[in-house]
Structure formats: C-alpha cells, structure tokens
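Re: the 452-residue chain
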Amino acid sequence: MMPRYFQVTTNFMEKSSIFTPTDSPKSMKVKAFGILITLYFIFIAASTMAQETVNSQKLLVEKMVKAGFENVGIYQHKNDIYLFYENRLYRWEIEGLSKVIQSAASELGDSIRLHVIPLYNQIPVAVVTTVIQDYKKMISGENANHSLANSISVNLNSDSVRAIQKGLSLQNSPSRKLDLIFLPGLRFQYGNLSNPWEKRISISPILQTSLWKGNLLSAEVLIPLYNDLQQHYEGDIRLETATLNQLFRLPKNLFIYTSAGIFSYTARLTSSINYKRYGVSTEVRKYLLNGRICAGGNIGLTGYLDYVGGTLNYWPLDQVNFALYTEYREPTFDLATRLTVGKFLYNDYAVRLDLKRRFHESTFGVFILKSNYRASPSETGTVGGISLTLPISSRRATKPAPFRMKLAKYFDYEYRERTVDPLATTYRTNNDWNETVLNLNPDYIKKQLMQP
C-alpha cells in the first residue's frame, strides 16, 4: 500500500498546474526554485511599498507641521488613512481643510481612502472622507457635475475616530501658546436732539491660550478710540471678559460647553456704573440629521461685579438665566432659522426668531424679538434688526508661535431698531466655538469644497 503522505503529494501534483506527474525530480526542483525567487521578489516589493507608504505619511505630517498646522496625527488601517489636524493658520476653515486634502493627495497613493478630521482644541468636529483618485478627478474637472457629490462625504458624527485619536501622539501642540488678538468694535445708540446718533469706536486686545484638550482661557480689555455715548464710563479703558471655557464632546453628536469667570453685557442706558457679571454658564447642544438640525439650551448663575476707585465689588450669585433653542439649516441656500425662548438678563422673558444666510465667509441675518420688558407704557416690547458677520483679517495668519499677534478673523455687528434699552440681553463669554462649528457644517463643507 502507498504511504498516506505520498498519496497526498501525488494527488497535489496531479491537480497542480505547476507540477505534473511527468515532471522529473530535476525539473520539479527548478520550478520550486523559480517559485521561491518569485515569492522573494513579491515580498521585497510589498516591503518596499509598505516602507514608501510609511515614508509618505511621515513626510505628510512633517509638511503640515512645517506649514503651521497643529495637532497633526496620522493613522492607517488597511487602505484607509485617518488624518487629524487643527487649523489656527487660515482664516477660513474651508481653505485650511482644502490645503490639508491637497497635501495628502500629493503624498499618498491614488487608491487610498482618506478621512480628514478637523479639530477644535483637540476635539474632533467632523469627518471628511474621499478617495484620493476621485478627489484628483474632481479638482481637475474630469468628473461630471452629477458625480461631484459622490467624490466627498462629510459626517458630523466622529464616534468612529475617537478610539483612533486616543492612540495617536499628535504633533505640534498649541497648548500654552499665547495669541494676542485685536478685535475692532463699533457701537451706535440713539441720543438726543443735539447728537441723535451716539457712537463708540474701540479696539479690544484679547489674550487667548489653551491649556488642555477642549480648553480655552481668554481675557479681553476694551480700549475706546472715539466715544460720544452719554454713559460716562463708555470712554474708560476696562476689562470686558476673563473666562475659563471647556468644551466636551460626547457620543452621538452631543456637545457641552461650560464657561466660568467674568462676563460682559450691554447695560441699560440709565446705568451709572459699568457693571459686569461673574459666575458660570453651561450650554448643551444636540445635532440631528448630520448637522442640519440642532436643539439645545443654556443656563447660567451669575452675580453683579464692578471695579471702582481701585476696589473690586461683587454681589451674591443670585441671578439665574436660561434659554432653549432649536435651529434648522437649509443646505441649498445655507439658510439657518433659529427660535430661542428664555429668561434673559433683567428678569426679561422673551422670544427671538433669527434668519441667517451664509454667503461664502460672510453672514447676513434679520431677527425679531418679543420681550416682556417695557421702558415706558407706550412701548410694545417688539424689536427687529439685522446682524452681520464679515471677514476682516488676512486669509492666512503668521504661523502659531509661543507668542503671536494678529487681527480677529471676523467682525460681528448687530443693529436694532431701538437701542435705548437692551431686550433679550445675554452676556458674552468670549469663546469662538460657534464660529468654528459654523464653518465646519457638513453641508457647508461639501458645497464649498466642490466649488471651483
């Protein structure tokens, strides 16, 4: 009887297209040697390609860090590459994102599926996914218009990359780097017959830094350059805000933002002292439908604070303010509709409706509000107005450094038809999280990236 191992070998030889029963031992050795040589070169080629991929990733990280991007990290799983970065270089987040994708496309292979994750103080904001080859075709114009939408996908949910980020060592940390930001200010209010339009032109230096993940430490001083407002203190140099801010991102698109410190707000015309408020404020926000709908609320506990004649005076934390809101962002025209109701400063219960349209980097809005506050019996408590957000700085700032001075990215202005007394007044905590989220909305990212 033939041994079992010989039966198996013979059976293999009979079925194999490489070895045949008629092969001599010598020819079988030659073929086996050829197979080994082929496998060796395949192994060498695969090792070389893997090393080239590692080198490409390393070069990409070095290139981005040299350009001025921060918190840069990269991770590969099979054919997927995850690229993390934080932009404090370009004014417009979309331009920064576009530069990152272009850099990746120049360093990585065409078959790579790239996932780009923009960060805000190390917190992921969105996940932008594209195949390198499809992206190159898109920017070169090879893809037809109907296929552009399939070239890039944007997801607000970042739960899939949380574990990846935890295992990465991000390069070029912005922690403890100081930015001195100069923000121009403009305020109008109705005056008297001799000066019907009172105004104040100012500049506000803002010192900002981040100490840890999700953190922003900020302090702002207001310096009047021209002032003819009737409130005597409006011509004084003064501290506006000093806050410790912390952002938390939880699973399923839930955000929590907390601020503690000194807040500023618009005082009534009759105020004789430039009061501030101190305390704590927390906002909770939930996004639905990939960022098109959001709902949330905020609550704050504050007390009065002033600084007169070298003395700091403060009152108990006795004022609770809260608000609930919901917003829908229509993607075709990038039109946001927000309804807010709540208890505002001065025990003012009010409801406010905002309509805002996004034009590239600028925003134009109209609003109307109804308040229960009455300065006189003849007033209705209904006020309307407009709001503007305009870019004012250069497109690209200097590279982040241990200390950097720059102009604020955007100028915000709100005009109300009646400015004597503030209605539905809120305090300012001086954080820029909303600005970042506004610029990294999934529909907005996709629309702007696909434009020539």
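The first strand starts at residue 70 and ends at 77.
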